[in-house]
Write a structure and sequence with these properties.
Blueprint (H helix, E strand, L loop, with lengths): L8 H7 L17 H14 L13 H14 L1 H9 L6
Length: 89
């Protein structure tokens, strides 16, 4: 059973292969994409400032910078589209 702010296994399976830093992609390999997504969900669900992100998610500034970079590169749009439920309008 996962933490209530964590991405579900099913949702993770839908987005894991499209994220920057995945094995086989050009550039570095990010070992913590799932932890990072959990950090973003935590901030979104609780409303805490990035500076108050619990240490289990790593350095708050690193998480914020990655969030900002993914926003500028359109990664969040891809994640959003992949997680959309076609039964919901």
């Amino acid at each position: 059973m996962g933490h209530r702010h964590a991405i579900s296994d099913a949702a993770w399976g839908r987005v894991e292969g499209m994220l920057p830093g995945r094995p086989g992609a050009v550039g570095w390999v990010a070992a913590d994409n799932r932890v990072f997504l959990d950090a973003v969900l935590y901030v979104a669900k609780t409303g805490v400032p990035w500076r108050d992100l619990p240490t289990r998610f790593g350095k708050w500034n690193t998480a914020y910078k990655r969030f900002d970079r993914w926003s500028r590169t359109g990664t969040w749009r891809q994640v959003y589209d992949a997680l959309q439920d076609p039964d919901l309008e």
